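Look over this record before class:
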Amino acid sequence: MDSRIWTILYFSFLFIQLFEINDLLNWWIQFLSTVFLKYTFITIGIVLFYGIGELWRKKLQFKNVTDNQKLAIISGMTLGGLMIIYQGQSLFMPVKLTAYEVK
């Protein structure tokens, strides 16, 4: 994207935050606690999976990579993917009906 578009995006976000300044601190605290405390596994999994994938794509893809480095990359991405699946399974699981709710 063009840097002017990013500038407009960031300043729009800043304007909205400053416009709602009365509850800005509480919003940030709630947002950070939700992301890092409630959804810890999926957050770490996303960072691992995409971070290692981007490292591979930008830095290591066209260089001579040893078998140990390939194993580390595959292991890290697999661990990240498993963490995403683990918490994603509990987030997107369909509602389970109990015997009392079925009539």
Residues 16 and 37 are 25 Å apart (CA to CA).
